[in-house]
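STRUCTURE REQUEST FORM
Protein name: Ribosome production factor 1
Source organism: Chunga burmeisteri
Requested output: structure tokens
Priority: standard
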Amino acid sequence: AGDGSGPVGSAAEDGGPPVPERVLFPPTFSVSEIKNKQRRHFMFLRWKQQQRKEKLAAKKKRRKEREALGDKAPPKAIPKTIENQRVYDETTVDPNDEEVAFDEATDEFAPYFNRQTVPKILITTSDRPRGRTVRFCEQLSTVIPNSHVYYRRGLALKRIIPQCIARDFTDLIVINEDRKIPNGLVLSHLPDGPTAHFRMSSVRLRKEIKRKGKEPTEHVPEVILNNFTTRLGHSIGRMFASLFPHDPQFIGRQVATFHNQRDYIFFRFHRYIFKSEKKVGIQELGPRFTLKLRSLQKGTFDSKFGEYEWIHKRREMDTSRRKFHL
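Status: completed
Returned output:
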């Protein structure tokens, strides 16, 4: 193929007859054997194009066969993914489990779900935050109703927490940064905990999101929690739910989504509009970010003497790609 005698040839480049649409590569053909870099790249693109055409043709053929068979058509094959090949976790929550129902009725978040308390959130930062972290905190406060942004000014978290409890705050959110980029989030439920520490990545502010909607309104958003299936995931989901007032205002058409996939928690904030009875259009409002749980601690923040319920240990826990904890 390198000397011009391959399946495509060089006739089209020399002004000869046009290259046929279907490119027939020999069975033992390997693009990597072509020495010329430009020629190798060109042949690779043609090969990829042929692969796509063959895949599309096979898909059309299967669809026609299914239409011809009608009700007798075999069920569609389910592709294998890491998600559906997940290793079974014995802590997966059963909705009808009496023990789980009892724990939910007596845990730290029960007053919120019983509507005895109204969320009041304090959002703060690490010492001397830079502009990007400050803007992220301000935008996060427009997503979470009844949240207030204050800056650390050198105070230790152990001194901030008693002040928050005295002022009736129900949760404390701390945004940490590294090299001017937000890279961590600490969520502490007050007054008795628990405290979760997350690694934060892929932060996008509103101005960095394409085709974003207008600024969010002050309506209380709806909250969607996806795939928090284990006991640990259930606890984390209840922590996120307790940040938002229990009664959403549907007239605002705003939705805050925490989607767990392979133990990465993706946050998105959207506005929706009904185009018809079956179609719904959505606009992302921002900000967006991704969280990865690092630890869950009993009680409020205490890095030295705190009792940890769960700590992510990479060498021990990440031995299988099909094992998830949330």
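Reviewer notes: The longest helix spans residues 37-69. Helices lie at 37-69, 98-106, 110-113, 131-143, 157-166, 231-241, 314-317.
Form closed.
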